[in-house]
Amino acid sequence: MKKELTRFIREKEIQLAKLKEHVEKSSVCSDLYNKVVLEKAILKKELEESKKNKFFDGIKNLIPRKKTLICDYFKK
User: What is the pLDDT, as a whole number, of residue 76?
Assistant: First the structure.
C-alpha cells in the first residue's frame, strides 16, 4: 500500500514537471496542472495517514486532557 502510494506520488511529480512547461500557454494545461496538484496532495495525505500509529492515536483520544480556557491566558 505504502509503496503504491509513493509510486503514484512520483508519477504525479513527473506529470507536473511535464505540464509546468505548458501551464502559461494553455488554459487546458493550467486546469490539468491544478488537477494533478490536487491529486498529488490527496495521495500525500493518504500516505501520511497510513504511516500513523492507529493504536497510539486511539489511546491518546481516550486520555482526558485539560482544556485551556480563555481566562487561563490572563492568569499571572
Answer: 57
Classify residue 63 by its DSSP letter: S
Report field, pTM of the whole predicted structure over 0.70: no
Is 36:22 a contact under the CB 8 Å cutoff?
no
Q: Give tens-digit pLDDT for 15-50.
A: 989 888 888 888 888 899 999 999 999 999 988 888
Match 512547461 to its residue by C-alpha cell. 21
Which cell numbers hold the place of 45? Answer: 495525505
User: Quick count: other Cβ atoms within 10 Å of Cβ 12?
Assistant: 19
- Please name which of 42, 36, 41 lies closest in space to residue 18, comparing C-alpha atoms: 36
3-state secondary structure 53-67: CHHHHHHHHHCCCCC
**19 vs 22: CA distance, rounded Å:** 5
